[in-house]
């Protein structure tokens, strides 16, 4: 497995300083996000309804990024559930990830953009 030195250095610093975040800030990391989906993570498309209708990851739920915290609460999604968010480029997914983190969700991953993520996730 190939590791990137900055990611390892950041993790080590966090461990030593006691500031490890329980969310994953791997913005735009479709390879990692796809591996988590394959392990059972909930996958959520945070794009507009029109974008979702034009194509999406097969098992993805659709929740617009502005509504993600309220809809997760309405649907009773556990704050311990691993969640992968994606949009067109990763920007809206990151906004949604940060909002969920502030709401106490502990395992939220920004999967980046649809075009990069989709080919990495097979149909179930």
Automatic annotation (TrEMBL):
Signal sequence annotation: 1-26
Key words of the record: Signal
Cross-referenced SUPFAM superfamilies: Rhodanese/Cell cycle control phosphatase
Stretches of the chain forming a coiled coil according to its record: none
Amino-acid biosynthesis keyword on record: no
Record-linked InterPro entries: GlpE_sulfurtransferase (IPR050229), Rhodanese-like_dom (IPR001763), Rhodanese-like_dom_sf (IPR036873)
PROSITE patterns: RHODANESE_3
Ranges where the Rhodanese domain occurs: 37-122
Protein name in UniProt: Rhodanese domain-containing protein
Source organism per UniProt: Pokkaliibacter plantistimulans
């Amino acid at each position: 497995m190939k590791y990137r030195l900055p990611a390892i250095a950041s993790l080590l610093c966090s461990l030593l300083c006691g500031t490890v975040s329980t969310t994953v800030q791997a913005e735009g990391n479709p390879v990692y996000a796809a591996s988590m989906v394959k392990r059972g993570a909930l996958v959520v498309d945070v794009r507009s309804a029109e974008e979702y209708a034009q194509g999406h990851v097969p098992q993805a739920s659709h929740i617009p990024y502005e509504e993600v915290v309220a809809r997760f609460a309405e649907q009773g999604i556990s704050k311990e559930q691993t969640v992968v968010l994606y949009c067109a480029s990763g920007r809206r997914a990151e906004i949604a990830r940060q909002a969920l983190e502030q709401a106490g969700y502990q395992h939220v991953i920004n999967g980046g953009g649809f075009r990069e993520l989709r080919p990495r996730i097979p149909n179930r």
